[in-house]
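Hi,

I'm pasting everything inline rather than attaching a file, because the server keeps stripping attachments. The sequence lines come first, and each chain or strand is labelled.
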Amino acid sequence: MNPGYQHKGTEEYIESFERFASAHVRDNSALNTQAIQRFRELGFPTTKNEEWKYTNVFPILNNSFSLPSPSFRLKKEDIQPLLLTGKDSIVLVFENGYLNKELSSMEGIPKGVIIESLAAMHQHERVKMHLGKYAPMKQESFVALNTAFIFDGAFIYLPANTRVEKPVHLLYINDSREHATVVYPRNLIVAEKDASCRVAVTYHTLGNVNPAFTNSVTEVVAGPTTNVELVKIQNENNSTYHISHTEAIQERDSVFNISTITLGGQMVRNNLHIVLNDVNCVAHLYGLYITDGNQLVDNHTLVDHAKPNCESNELYKGVLGGKSQGVFNGKVFVRQDAQKTNAYQSNKNILLSDEATMNTKPQLEIFADDVKCSHGATTGQLDAEALFYLRSRGIGESEAKAFLNIAFAADVIKNISLESLRDRLMPLIERKLKQG
Amino acid sequence: MLEIKNLQARVEEKQILNGINLNVNPGEVHAVMGPNGSGKSTLASVLAGRDEYEVTGGEVLYKGENLLDMAPEERARKGLFLAFQYPVEIPGVTNANFLKTALNEIRKANGQQPMDSKEFLQIMKEKMKLVEMDKAMTQRSVNEGFSGGEKKRNEVFQMAMLEPTLAVLDETDSGLDIDALRIVANGVNALRNKDRSFIVITHYQRLLDYIVPDFVHVLYKGRIVKSGTKELALELEAKGYDWIREENNVHI
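And the predicted assembly:
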């Protein structure tokens, strides 16, 4: 028995899996079954587990969530304000985890490229080849749980030399107006040699009363000389529990940029693993979390430099108000083989109140000798001198504070290459910062 | 315009201003000089409302109102401007955005409509010429990576944009070479008019060759110990501050 895990509540999830499995007979049920077995062995992590030290998942188990069925009730108006990448995008709308084709816009997908429901494509040879191969379900109970319950999500397949110019938006809406619901979004992005795309995955809820539980996994396979950008935005309501895992594998000469933006949620855990699996890869990791009230946002990142001449650059920033808590844990492994690695990491936080807390832990493990690695972390108040400077020019105190916080956040957002998304994201960020 | 009466102030536990009296009328330029530690910057900070400074006595009337009761932003909205000795870098906020917000906050407080972007750009273009500022600087973050001279020019540029009625220049000449000094002084001179007053705080007489004051005051140990016209500055330049020290140590 693993001491870092607890089994209370586990049985309920297993029982619900059995009901779920009997209703969904599918080709990859072997993967589902294997996953639930692993989940049964692992159970839920407790705070005794070093990786979950600050994030107690027990509140999730105190709720009972129902698994939604594919019935669609959302209207165009419901999703209108959530179209964050703008009109000229390929949008897949997932209502309670299932693709709602009616509300989706799937025109303009280049020939040969697949952007589809994962459930519809589950027999595709590339799905069979890649699904579940990277996200570590052996170690991570939430990855195992997600894998057991895969019912839908997006499959994006870019054959060699293809390029998707339009932004791709995977829009997840969890409707918990009537029930507390649980969804298990699962995305698989496979880019073959020389392909490129930019994908935004955004999570939202409808309704404020019932809690919702989102447990998502995204796997990215970035082939040789590919360029893939992923932006994950969490803007669910403040009674949502959100646990996600993103796993990216990079092949030689590939560039992968990921931005992880967290605005909502009662408890949010973002796991991000990037494996630089061959030479000359570049990975940029950006993160922003803006919290208030009793929110807890925990970002765990791992960059695994497996091969020489790769570069990783990580910048995570947080603005924490109220009694909220932030956690940042950034691991960087530089394997013995990974000479000439450049790896940089920075975590900067502003605490807006005396009761907000931040736990930050950089963790560099370097086994190669010819490398450049650095890390830095700061946590503090707003710069009093800058605040006075703004006020001395006639800008009111709360306006001046918001100004400085917005500038602090914009420093992360400016790295997103999709201008249409940046333009829609900044007002959301400004609104959240002005609430505090 | 401004009446400072027996102003006393301290920072932390240290008493710095020991009773300052000064009257500034519309259109006047007053130079305040003094050796290091005499209280020059403290005076500027108290006038602008920096909160580490505690006023322990006296009063300051600005346009007939109690200045010391006002928040820093209120003072600015009523036309007070401080050119900082050490302008602050604000990463992520462009000069243009910063100034537009400030300008419109001031306009709003004075019952005016916000300025539209076109008009703002037009005025900005005009005022940039005053201090020979490059257009690219307006799209850069406020003071970030600016040289010492660029920062001081940016202060004068902001002043030109916000059109204060009373400007306090806190050692705007420090750290400037002669060319930058000339540019900054030209900018200030262009803004002089019959309604606008200046308090020019400086350690050196040099600046006053370019910005010719109506009055010169010598600050020593937190008091104005001598007042005169621009000739006093020349006398200080020739004799240094020692004679002030000697004179005052005898008298006090």
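DSSP finds nine helices and twelve strands in chain B.

If the labels don't parse on your end, tell me and I'll reformat.
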